[in-house]
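Suppose you are handed only these lines of text.
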Amino acid sequence: MAEFETIVVVGAGVVGLSTVLCIQQYLKPSQSVLLVARDFPSDTSVNYASPWAGAHYRPVPGSSPTSAPLAVNEPAAGIIFLKGVEHLEAPPPEYLDSQSAHNVYSHLDEFRYLSDDEVPAGVKWGVEYGTYVVNSPVYCAHMLRKFILKGGTTKRYTLAHLKEAFSLDTNVKTVINCSGLGFDDPKSFIIRGQTCLVRNPVSATITRQNTDGSWSFCIPRPLDGGTIIGGTKQPHNWDPNASPETRAQLLAKASKWFPFASESGGQFDVIHDIVGRRPAREGGMRIEVEKLENEKQIVHAYGAGGRGFELSHGVAEDTVALMLENGLLKEKAVL
Ligand SMILES: Cc1cc2nc3c(=O)[nH]c(=O)nc-3n(C[C@H](O)[C@H](O)[C@H](O)COP(=O)(O)OP(=O)(O)OC[C@H]3O[C@@H](n4cnc5c(N)ncnc54)[C@H](O)[C@@H]3O)c2cc1C
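From them, the structure of the protein bound to flavin-adenine dinucleotide can be written out as follows.
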């Protein structure tokens, strides 16, 4: 009989949670999954990025909206489809090149260019398309619940070193590192984001690029979670406090450019400010296997930066593909 084995996944952010659910489909009867983390979905910490994300899908070359089936099949996941709008005041050359824009946007449902008389004054380039938005804390809690219902176990623990994870159960040969920033990786860095969660509803997600180089956006959170008004992207900025000046600027731009109901009179009903650290990495995410002594292996999956929600399904699938290649899981998915 095969020796019983525990696979330890470190990190309960959107990447770790997506990964444990994917792994559970390929477990051998002799395997189980233990999810170890400092923070879980009911926590809020500036160093735990996932609960702070907007989050919405904006296209980038080569990606696709992979959360779509969940929105249809699992309404409690906190994902909905709605209209996405982009307004750019100073579009970079790649947006003006019609082939390049086509490659990026044409896979989206209901994609179309907006004509000059459909965009607000000052906007040189506008598009709309069908997209999805995620209530990020609800979505993460939903995934955690699914993991537990399928037999997964959890442990709240702060690792001083990743190799500690091999000692957290009796027979651990595989550790998956979904810790966001990794452990002492010199390529990892943070990108501070400040946004503001308000009660005012809005019916579309709108992203506006301003001539001063800043970006403004509003993202409604499904299941009555309010609307995120954003936002800043500040690499290497460690300030954990929300700046009142930044909040005032974000809300002033939002009331000018986004279609909040006229009865709000440009006033916002603020729920709270948000400050979070996007776990970024020079050169992009690290997704690779590291082989250690005594047949132990680490699979790294961290450094998603500002796109963890958009990338999470793909990252989970890539991680599982690496595990299958290395014989760490059963070939055929248990669906
Ligand atoms: C303001 C803001 C807006 C954003 N908007 C979007 C958006 O619209 N779309 C989008 O796709 N993304 C967005 N993001 C980015 C997104 O939030 C991140 O890419 C994503 O949450 C990263 O997920 P993760 O699981 O890698 O990391 P995290 O969510 O940070 O999770 C890391 C996990 O590892 C655990 N951990 C770390 N170190 C240790 C340790 N030593 N011991 C034990 N556990 C440890 C933590 O406790 C946590 O459970 C936004 C982020 C911010 C801050």
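What can we learn from it? The first helix runs from residue 14 to 24. The longest strand covers residues 270-281.
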